[in-house]
Design brief:
heterodimer, A: mainly beta, 3-stranded antiparallel sheet, two-stranded antiparallel ribbon, about 10% helix, B: alpha+beta, 4-stranded antiparallel sheet, 5 helices, about 15% helix
């Protein structure tokens, strides 16, 4: 559930808050813990000229330049996760065994272009 | 959610959405590991993803399998055989290529207080590898032998040798053991241990494919 933005959110690419509640997706009867977690997501633009804090690749810099010359032909670079964190989930599997499993790349910590 | 949910469940290592029928209580050790990981300041101090520090073994999946075996007839009682039970663990939840790195058998007994065998007697515990029908493999030495002067509420035994660390071959989806408990020494007396036996479970730590193949991105 992404909160309604307070004020005018920055248009630039950055992590946005997203809390995933397992009961919202109907998984609460087999996931023991957590009941949900802060997954976040990447949102916002990668405009020309790419600001230093936008964690951008060289390719993205060039792409924004070409986009500014030819907006119809070349899109802006995308805003994507560049650093993610794992979480552990405690759940019942298909044989009712109790499982604690470590899942990589489940939380967005940083975004970039 | 349909196809998206199915593909997401598969990437979580599940063939379908689980619907637990008789969910077992969560073993305290799993809660401890779970809470410890949750309270870590992220992400710098995150534990190494493919290691279970609490057991100091490689692994990213910890499962607890409940025993599904039955009590066996005493057969030819050697000494004072009090208890003979098939311990059967359905390992079909393991995915192909998962490699067990730790296996711990826990035997739980009813008595909350310490309940020993009769004075001057010793409780002997033996564990054999068995066929799924509960027949010990002939001529095989016991996997484990212990003499106990005192019976505790929970006994934990290291069984990694029984699963000998290699990847679980496809189709090998169960582990069957025969547990025998007998009393020896001093004058006869009722075998307290047989009715004290409550349950058994197998804790298994495995290294999943994604850990063994390095950090594959999906």
């Amino acid at each position: 559930s992404a909160p309604s933005p307070a004020g005018t959110p920055s248009p630039l690419c950055k992590p946005r808050r997203l809390y995933i509640s397992f009961s919202d997706v109907g998984w609460e009867n087999w996931i023991i813990a957590p009941q949900g977690y802060l997954a976040n997501y990447c949102g916002g633009e990668c405009p020309f000229p790419l600001a230093a804090e936008l964690n951008s690749t060289n390719h993205a810099v060039l792409q924004t330049m070409v986009h500014s010359l030819d907006p119809q032909g070349t899109p802006q670079p995308c805003c994507v996760p560049v650093r993610l964190s794992p979480i552990s989930i405690l759940y019942y599997d298909n044989s009712d065994n109790v499982v604690l499993r470590h899942y990589e790349d489940m939380v967005v910590d940083e975004c970039g272009c | 959610l349909g196809p998206q949910e199915t593909s997401l469940l598969r990437s979580l290592g599940l063939s379908a959405k689980p619907s637990p029928r008789s969910p077992a209580p969560v073993p305290p050790v799993l809660w401890r590991i779970f809470h410890k990981r949750r309270t870590l300041p992220r992400p710098e101090a995150a534990p190494e993803p493919c290691r279970v520090e609490e057991f100091n073994v490689p692994g990213n999946i910890v499962r607890v399998f409940a025993d599904q075996g039955r009590f066996l007839p005493a057969g030819q009682p050697q000494g004072r055989l009090c208890l003979r039970k098939l311990l059967f663990f359905n390992l079909s939840a393991l995915e192909e290529g998962e490699r067990p790195t730790l296996a711990q058998l826990e035997l739980r007994f009813q008595h909350s207080s310490y309940h020993g065998p009769s004075p001057g007697r010793v409780l002997e515990l033996r564990l054999y590898r068995a066929s799924p029908r509960g027949l010990p493999q002939p001529g095989r030495a016991p996997l484990l032998e212990r003499s106990l002067v005192q019976l505790r509420k929970s006994l934990v035994f290291e069984l990694s040798a029984a699963l000998s660390g290699r990847a679980v071959p496809p189709g090998r989806d169960s582990l069957a053991l025969v547990l025998e408990m007998s009393e020896s020494g001093g004058p006869g007396g009722p075998c307290g241990s047989s009715d004290a036996f409550a349950a058994a479970s197998l804790l298994l730590v495995t290294l999943g494919r994604q850990c063994r193949a390095g950090r594959g991105r999906r």
